[in-house]
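Hello,

Following up on my earlier ticket. Below are the two sequence lines again, exactly as submitted.
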Amino acid sequence: MDRIDSQSLLKKGAEAHLFLANWHDRKVIVKARFPKKYRPTELDEKIRSYRTAHEPLLMHEVKKAGVPTPTIFLVDIKNAMITMEFVEGKQLKQVLPHVPRKERQELCFRVGVLIGKMHRRGVVHGDLTTSNMILSGEGKIFLVDFGLGEKTTELEARGVDLHLMKRALQSTHYQFAEDCFKHVLKGYFEVWDTEDAKKVLEKILEIERRGRYVDERKKT
Amino acid sequence: MYPSRLRKTYGRTAEMKQSAKTLCLGVESTADDFGVGITTFNGEILANASSDYIPEEGGIHPREAARHHAEVADKVLKEALEKAEAKPEDLTLIAFSQGPGLGPCLRTGATVARALASFLAIPLIGVNHSVAHIEIGKLETGAVDPVTLYVSGGNTIVSAFDSGRYRVFGETLDIALGNCLDVFAREAGLKHKRGTPLGAALEKLATDGKELISLPYVVKGMDISLSGLLTAATNLLHKSKCRLEDACYSLQEHAFSMVAEVTERALAHTEKKEVLLTGGVAANIRLQAMLSSIAEEHDAKFNVVPREFAADNGAMIAWTGVLAYTHGLVTPVEKSFVKLRWRLEKVDVPWIE
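Thanks for your patience. The regenerated structure is below:
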């Protein structure tokens, strides 16, 4: 395995540590899923190796559908480490609150377009939050962190994916969550305007009704 | 009809009581517990009496639970007042659990609360049950701004405060954690006995588990899904010859790892420096250990609600009532209808800066 030099911890996430490193004279991100002490070793190893193996596959897959994701360089399943391209930019979470309304709506629309392309390709992300979207210097939106993703064309999985996006907007950007989600959906159906795709709207409502103490339940 | 065992209550010294003149009485009745708590306006808990409804078989029957509550209400009220050494006319405020919860149970508690407030001609305040679980946890542990994991028979919520409300970061997409454990325990033939809830019986068996059996592990973003895990674990009981201890152990490890993972996600996302574990399932030692490990990993302080305030109780309602009332909120009787689906994130909490 190639040597990775001068690692520095960039971010300590919930699931993995992100290191900024140099690899063949380029800046890379090393994503390391270290063991979690709180869960049993067997379960921990299973979860970490599964996610390390699947994440690069899904990132590669959605690239083919025109969804920008960091390029994968190395995958080390045994140590649960992935080396990938370092995308310079800002998390959408940090950008959204500080841009004018029009621009915010436009960004959300583009996010929707990306989700639509991804779903059409048969991939769900599994953790759609504005922290997992990076607006690069050139203005491209990259989707990252596919650790909870799945290859599936099931309507249920797509519905949950969009439901999670909505929930993430509500908890982090509650001031304009509704407007944001409206534009996400607009973008989503822009790329994927079929009867089949539209069924996902009904699905989202169904998923919400299944939740605890939801007003929507009353209507059934 | 229902033998009522009145739980441990809290007495305080005479001089403490003299110094606190204003008292709030809280009525809790969202599900199987009927509880009455009395607190002072500065957070001294003077009494926390309760009686729980234990079904002959199966889960909580809302109508039967409500009937139980109506039958024990006077006894529990009397016990709380005696413990607090207070007379009804000493009370300043009546708080009650307005939701979310089971309709018939909520209405019974609300009726008791309205009657008391009207008779004594003192203000009434409706309290959100989920907020109360968080507030009693904060009061008892000293946590100020935590990421809270609230796990009980009806709720599985990861929340944190932001701009006037407790925001829900993660929750269950289907059944609650306590519900999942209880249903499994009943399928395994365990019985709910006084003083030993089903979850505690399951926890005891799980400590003798040796082999981890692989079960579904479903985390979606910061949400989880437990119904598939419950089905698979129940199938283990009926279709395989594994030891019951191993099945209990495996169920707990999978379910707790899932809630722990989403709590960790919320902690990393919000970058808060405190974790609070509250609700009935918070009494589980294994779950406490997992969350404590996560808090340590993120240099956060771990807090767990004391066992006596983990399950539904009247003291948490009384205390949250105090917080709301002292920040300008009251609930006129004509607006005191119960709210079966009153979500945590819909409640304004003006007492937090």
